[in-house]
Amino acid sequence: MIDIERASKSYQGREALRSITFTVPAERSLALIGPSGCGKSTLMRLVVGLIRPDSGQISVDSVPMTPSTARELRLRMGYVIQDGGLFPHLTAAHNVTLMARQLRWEVARIRERLASLAELVQLPPDLLGRYPAQLSGGQRQRVGIMRALMLDPKVILLDEPMGALDPIVRSHLQQDLKRIFRDLRKTVLMVTHDMGEAAYLGDEIALMRDGAIVQKGPLDDLRQRPAEAFVSEFLKAQRLQ
Ligand code: ADP
């Protein structure tokens, strides 16, 4: 579903990504993790089509990402960023339904979808009339997830979605996300700095360093067959080894 083939990207002559290759098969989830500055966000922005690789190819749903396909491909992907990334001057409902309105969905269809999404992410519907500043961090993130799911994309991308939340809110949201992605059979690529979260939400983990993937696999593989000392050190630092 998501295919990255030998993608490289430099900023001012410095390589941020060095020939990255990986696949996320349909209905599977991959968590990208690694030290700050290792290239996680750059990789995510390539997949969303916000930036282009210097070389290499990104495909989503077997369609190569090019300037002419980027917009159409973006509609097949829901993107959730830290703290929801909501427009502050629009209500929660308006944030969620923005794209559907632009695509001229019928009012009844929009209303129905909004109600079913609120139920799915367990957001009390009366909160939908509020502005982002009138919601808690966890509620904002639930609205952000509703927005990402609105057009029912096959692919969901999450960039540190739980980064700004306290541990209990975070843990509830992680459980809900796992249920939602499994039930809706989404293909998921996420960035996190928390190995516990990566292992909980990702079928596989890709541990990155200096613009490259050091090892990709389930947490048990990383634990039992670390590709390099760095893998064990990283797990140890996260108290997982
Ligand atoms: P991460 O998300 O893992 O923290 P990033 O993808 O943000 O890493 O950054 C990877 C590298 O690219 C870092 O060295 C960072 O300083 C650099 N970088 C990221 N974005 C830009 C940019 N817009 N201009 C210049 N350098 C950048």
What does this structure look like?
The protein has nine helices and ten strands. With 241 residues, the chain is of the alpha/beta class. It has a single domain (23-38, 72-237), classed as P-loop containing nucleotide triphosphate hydrolases (Rossmann fold, 3-Layer(aba) Sandwich), CATH 3.40.50.300. The strands form two sheets. Strands 6-7-8-3-9-10 form a six-stranded mixed beta sheet, with helices on both faces. A four-stranded antiparallel beta sheet has the order 2-1-4-5, with helices on one face. Helix 3 (92-102) runs parallel beside helix 5 (137-149) and helix 4 (107-120) packs across helix 5 (137-149). The mean pLDDT is 93. Bound molecules: adenosine-5'-diphosphate. Adenosine-5'-diphosphate binds at residues 11-12, 16, 34, 36-42.
Please give the CATH class: Alpha Beta
Number of domains: 1
The oligomeric status of these chains comes to single chain
Low-confidence stretches: none
SS element count, helices: 9
Number of strands: 10
Strand content: 25-35%
**Cα shape:** globular
Could you tell me the CATH topology label.
Rossmann fold
Rg to the nearest angstrom?
A: 18 Å
Q: What order do the strands of the largest sheet run in, or round the barrel if closed?
A: 6-7-8-3-9-10
Helix content: 25-40%
